[in-house]
Amino acid sequence: MTVASMGALLLVGACSAPPMAPMSTMLSARLSGASEVPNVMSDATGTVDASLEPDSRVLTWRISYSGLSGPVTAAHFHGPAMAGQNAAPVVPIGGPLLSPIMGRATLTPSQAADLIAGKWYLNLHTTAHPNGEARGQVNVRP
């Protein structure tokens, strides 16, 4: 076999390789009382680190927080809503709700589209702030 024919075989093999799977979309949010609507006075801070698998639409998350007035009584992803707007919960987050909170959910196609478009936020609720003490708009990481 000549060097040229070996090169041709390698090229054909490379061209017939299966396509690469699409990469996960990485998402994040910064949580604060100032992002609540209306805003609340709180020392709460937090972050959301999440990923969305494009084919399965499985959303996985890790939520870390501190400085809340008390234990988290409920946590949800809400949408569709842009920053400054409120919306109903779309994905409830089950317990335990101690930091860090980790979980996953399978989204519908429209939910995945709203999430990627920046139309979801995460809200942490406490007894002192039943409508939410720390909130952050979820966005695709640059």
Automatic annotation (TrEMBL):
InterPro entries with a match to the protein in the record: CHRD
Signal peptide limits: 1-21
Top-level taxon: Bacteria
Pfam family of the protein (one): CHRD
Key words, A-Z: Signal
CHRD domain mapped to chain residues: 23-142
Protein's recorded name: CHRD domain-containing protein
Organism field: Ideonella alba
Classification lineage: Bacteria, Pseudomonadati, Pseudomonadota, Betaproteobacteria, Burkholderiales
